[in-house]
Specification:
- Helix content is 34%, strand content 24%.
Length: 281
């Protein structure tokens, strides 16, 4: 098994909040991640919930800002928070643009050089990271959920839809639901995946849900004061696709809330309860 290096561990709400690093085969270098273990983990494996963060974020962003540990402790949920991309890649053009490259891996497997060597977050999140953490920590891979924010909301939706039956619960905050049709996605997909827009559909939740329904209700919260709502997020496109596919989805539009972690923290408890209900058995 790949060795895990402990960066730090702190006591939190009766459990342990840790930060770790390891050598990733999928991403060709060191990757960082955070894990919260609730106090119930002392008695055996607990359900595990993966969080995928958004553009510019790291493994620290959710861990510090979302205020999730208190409720995760009460509900007995383990939390896993990976970084959003490989770092220190040395690839020309991988830094200096907050919408692309390092900090903006888009949770896909790049097919275009030079990105395909390091930017394989799709495989990392769906395969390498779960195998690593569920083998090392007392986390129950048979009770696994996933959620995320913005680019990470896209990642959560796509990961669950691409791997039917592997996640029991799914939710998102302000996700990029149709990256093939918005500027953020077009910019990233064109560079990571090439010019063939048909290939983009394999990483677009609004396309995937037409072929791969999720077994359960998807919960989405979207702030109506979100500055990216009209041009980048477009939740109505996912609602339309879900309606055609017969996919249960609940999109809650929250008046006055923006794209920030103040919004995420405000509804975090609801999302953790949503996941706990599906992961208890």
């Amino acid at each position: 098994m790949t060795a895990i290096e402990v960066v730090s561990e702190q006591r939190s709400f009766g459990g342990t909040q840790g930060f770790y690093r390891h050598e990733s085969a999928a991403c060709g270098g060191v990757m960082k991640f955070a894990v919260y273990l609730p106090p119930q983990a002392a008695g055996g494996p607990v359900p595990v919930l993966y969080w995928l963060a958004g553009l510019t974020c790291t493994e620290e962003t959710f861990t510090i800002k979302a205020g999730a540990q208190r409720m995760a402790s009460a509900l007995g949920l383990g939390l896993v928070m990976p970084d959003t991309s490989p770092r220190g890649t040395g690839i020309e053009g991988a830094t200096g643009d907050w919408e692309f490259g390092e900090g903006a891996g888009f949770y896909l497997d790049a097919t275009q050089a030079p990105w395909s060597v390091r930017f394989n977050m799709g495989t990392y999140v769906a395969r390498e990271l779960p195998a690593l953490v569920e083998g090392y920590f007392p986390l129950d891979g048979n009770r696994r959920g996933i959620f995320g924010h913005s680019m990470g909301g896209h990642g959560a939706l796509v990961t669950a839809l691409r791997h039917p039956g592997e996640y029991r619960s799914l939710s998102a905050f302000a996700p990029i639901v149709a990256p093939s049709r918005v500027p953020w996605g077009e910019k990233a997909f064109g560079r990571y995946l090439g010019d063939d827009r048909q290939a983009w559909k394999a990483w677009d939740a609004s396309e995937l849900v037409k072929k791969h329904r999720f077994d359960g209700e998807i919960l989405i919260d979207q702030g109506l004061a979100d500055q990216f709502l009209a041009n980048q997020l477009k939740p109505e496109l996912f609602e339309e696709a879900c309606a055609l596919a017969g996919q249960p989805v609940r999109v809650r539009r929250q008046e006055g809330y923006d794209h920030s972690y103040y919004f995420i923290a405000s509804f975090m408890e609801d999302h953790l309860h949503h996941h706990a209900a599906a992961l208890r058995t």
